[in-house]
Amino acid sequence: MARTKDPAVRSLLLDRAAHMLRTRQPVTLRTLVAGTGVSTMAVYTYFGGMDGLWKALRQEGFTRLAAQLAAVKMTPDPVRDLAALGAAYLTNALENPDLYRVMFDASFDLEDTGAADETLDGLVRAVNRAKTNSRFRDEIDPLELATQSWTIGHGLASLIATGPLPPQALTHGAPMLTALFTSAGDEPDRCRQSVERGWGRIHRATPGSRDRSDGPS
């Protein structure tokens, strides 16, 4: 009878491989499992070998991101939702900094190439809702504005989760998104309130940050 695979072992190996890459340790079958309590055979059992591990490693980053984004409840306020999606993106990067580095390393293949596209598609849908609700001007290109919003989130994630800036720099996100969405046609005060409600999600997931209300969901 085949043994049931343990998801915890799979996650352990993926997290360890990502950490070893970040710290520039050589990743081999033996170094990967050293000190973990599992054998080298586990790499074959869960990934079919090292090539499968590399594909699964990058995919895991997008899988965890998808779970964070899916946890964001959509509300009648699409601008709040756009900011909340950005906060979820940052939360994922802060909780999985080693995997975050690997997610955008094109030297590793993805098992599901549509996973990365879905990250942006969720933002595009929120922009379209904002246009429908007359928060943004009709001529705004949803893909372009979504990409600009993602750029802000990705920049902060890269500089805070895996780079030189302290967590306090997260506070820059709300005014940058407010400026972006205001330039797209939203009313300044209403925009600021919506963004702050959505962006406040990240403070509950960041150690040492002051908790802020997300408002009604």
Would you give an account of this structure?
There is one protein chain. Helix 3 packs across helix 4 (50-70), helix 4 (50-70) packs across helix 6 (97-103) and helix 5 (78-95) packs parallel to helix 10. The model is unreliable at 204-217 (pLDDT under 50). The protein has 217 residues and is an all-alpha fold. The chain starts with 6 loop residues before the first helix and ends in an 18-residue tail after the last helix. It is elongated. It is built from ten helices and no strands.
Features:
single chain; 217 residues; mainly alpha; 10 helices; 62% helix; 0% strand
* Residue fraction in strands: under 5%
Main sheet: strands, sense, barrel: none
Mean pLDDT: 88
Beta strand count = 0
Number of helices: 10
Q: Stretches where pLDDT falls below 50 for ≥5 residues?
A: 204-217
Globally, the shape reads elongated
SSE succession: HHHHHHHHHH
Which class do the helix and strand fractions yield? mainly alpha
Radius of gyration: 19 Å
Terminal Cα separation, in Å? 47 Å
Fraction of residues in helix: 55-70%
